[in-house]
């Protein structure tokens, strides 16, 4: 009976796009903070490679039967699968980790907030799928909330921010992920676990040349309990849980409606700071949270003209 109830609960969860996407952003918020925290201790490409290899190894026993049945579909659509793996796994995550070696978590979260607009750009450029008025208005409204939270209610702080090579790398990472998110609508018809496994494995393989180059350049790698905890987090939560939820969320509601959910990352990041780092909640937190949530909800509403 309990097994049946658990199965029904998982089926229900797998059809709740807003809950799935919120879970994704919660996992990725921790990933940005964590990657910045281990900068200088774990080489960025090593962190990325262990992330994907570990995720593939954990997923393989559960995915094997589906992989065998879906392998003809994977081979048939191999060029598309490689494009999705390269942009969504190999390049995105690696550039983000490289960028966080040189910039702050604050800058990273600000740049991550450009994701909804970049997804909209790629959707328009590739598929002529323009953002609706509600999607654009919701994106801008939630972006204002992001700025309020990350600047402590003092937007003029943005004028004093210094951008460097790390910011450029991080922005390029988000640009690639915007492409991945838009093209995800073309994913081949196969079981979700087969798609996730193939994407991760192909992405890890394409990352190998950069990994070996980095390995030769680093004389020593300092590992600690914190390092292994970081590996566990990025393998389980930032990779398997987050990508499963994100891919399903895009499948259910489309890339443009998914975009504003990226603005939940600064919200979750600031909540983590309040709960675990002793930051005191303030009025600007409440204002920012309210604007982000209103923006996300507004972006999910369909225009009346589109509904008829």
Strand content: under 5%
- Indicate the low-confidence ranges by residue numbers: none
Question: In angstroms, what separates the terminal alpha carbons?
Answer: 44 Å
Largest beta sheet, briefly?
none
Structural class by secondary-structure content: mainly alpha
The overall number of domains is: 1
Please compute the radius of gyration using only Cα atoms: 19 Å
The run of helices and strands is HHHHHHHHHHHHHH
In short:
The chain is mostly helical and 308 residues long. It has helices spanning 2-13, 17-37, 44-76, 78-99, 105-112, 115-127, 133-150, 165-183, 192-217, 225-253, 255-258, 264-276, 283-300, 304-307.
Outline the structure in words.
- The protein has 308 residues and is mainly alpha-helical.
- Helix 3 (44-76) runs antiparallel to helix 4 (78-99), helix 3 packs antiparallel against helix 9 (192-217) and helix 4 (78-99) crosses helix 9 (192-217).
- 78% of the residues lie in helices and 0% in strands.
- The chain is built from 14 helices and no strands.
- It is globular, with a radius of gyration of 19 Å.
- The protein has one domain (24-301).
């Amino acid at each position: 009976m309990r097994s049946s109830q658990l199965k029904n609960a998982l089926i229900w969860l797998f059809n709740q796009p807003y809950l799935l996407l919120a879970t994704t952003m919660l996992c990725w918020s921790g990933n940005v903070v964590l990657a910045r925290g281990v900068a200088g201790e774990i080489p960025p490409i090593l962190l990325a490679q262990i992330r994907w290899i570990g995720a593939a190894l954990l997923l393989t026993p559960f995915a094997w039967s589906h992989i065998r049945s879906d392998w003809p579909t994977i081979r048939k659509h191999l060029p598309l699968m490689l494009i999705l793996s390269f942009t969504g796994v190999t390049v995105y995550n690696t550039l983000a980790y490289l960028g966080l070696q040189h910039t702050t978590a604050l800058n990273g979260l600000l740049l991550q907030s450009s994701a909804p607009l970049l997804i909209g750009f790629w959707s328009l450029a590739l598929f002529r799928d323009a953002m609706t008025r509600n999607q654009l208005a919701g994106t801008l409204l939630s972006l204002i909330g992001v700025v309020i939270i990350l600047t402590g209610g003092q937007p003029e702080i943005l004028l004093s921010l210094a951008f460097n090579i790390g910011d450029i790398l991080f922005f390029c990472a988000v640009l690639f992920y915007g492409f991945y998110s838009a093209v995800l609508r073309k994913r081949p018809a196969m079981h979700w676990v087969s798609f996730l496994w193939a994407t991760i494995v192909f992405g890890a393989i394409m990352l190998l040349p950069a990994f070996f180059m980095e390995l030769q350049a680093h004389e020593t790698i300092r590992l600690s309990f914190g390092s292994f905890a970081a590996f566990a987090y990025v393998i389980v939560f930032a990779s398997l849980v987050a990508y499963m939820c994100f891919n399903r969320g895009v499948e259910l509601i489309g890339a443009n409606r998914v975009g504003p959910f990226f603005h939940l990352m600064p919200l979750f990041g600031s909540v983590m700071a309040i709960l675990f780092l002793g930051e005191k909640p303030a009025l600007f937190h409440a204002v920012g949270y309210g604007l982000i949530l209103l923006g996300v909800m507004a972006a999910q509403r369909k225009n009346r003209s589109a509904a008829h």
